[in-house]
Design goal:
6 strands, globular, alpha+beta, single chain, Alpha-Beta Plaits, 176 residues, 7 helices
Length: 176
């Protein structure tokens, strides 16, 4: 039955996706990108210039073990920004649990606050978020970490259609 359905679809011009693409599994495609921010315990300035190279290497190492691609990792002395892609089988919560736990066990004296901020990133937002993370050192010369988080949360807040100038459809009750 399934073979007949496949033949019918192919005869109508449908072709299966190439399965050699990294985000294609069988007939499924996923693009699950996240901008994640997490901080050191009590916002202590633990992420020195000497710690960052080791931290990046450890994040990439654990990411590979999990099947997570870490596109970029940067931040300041008290927090980390990641742009990462997760496989569908792994929740962001599990990913962060493993990344934070692994790095705090491997780097002496490094402890993370509970929680994190996670924002989805679509393909149009990928490059701007990448550049934003890449320029963290410059960015934090101008803005504090607390102001940055406030701005990120405000930008991620869903906007209602009314705030964008849309008016609700008239109902029978309002037409009369």
């Amino acid at each position: 039955m399934a073979l007949l359905k496949k033949r019918r679809l192919r005869s109508q011009g449908f072709k299966p996706l190439a399965t050699n693409a990294p985000n294609v599994r069988g007939q499924s495609y996923h693009s699950l990108n996240y901008h994640v921010v997490f901080a050191t315990k009590r916002r202590l300035p633990l992420l020195t210039a000497q710690v960052w190279p080791e931290l990046r290497d450890l994040l990439h190492e654990k990411g590979r073990d999990l099947g997570v691609r870490i596109h970029i990792a940067d931040g300041s002395d008290d927090h980390v920004h990641l742009l990462l892609s997760c496989p569908p089988r792994l929740s962001v919560a599990d990913c962060m649990k493993h990344l934070k736990g692994f790095t705090s066990r491997k780097v002496d004296g490094l402890y993370w606050q509970n929680g994190y901020y996670a924002f989805t990133v679509d393909r149009l937002g990928f490059d701007p978020v990448y550049r934003y993370i890449e320029n963290q050192k410059i960015h934090h010369a101008k803005e504090s970490s607390r102001d940055e988080i406030k701005d990120l949360l405000a930008a991620a807040e869903p906007r209602s259609p009314r705030s964008q100038g849309f008016k609700p459809l008239a109902t029978n009750a309002t037409r009369e």
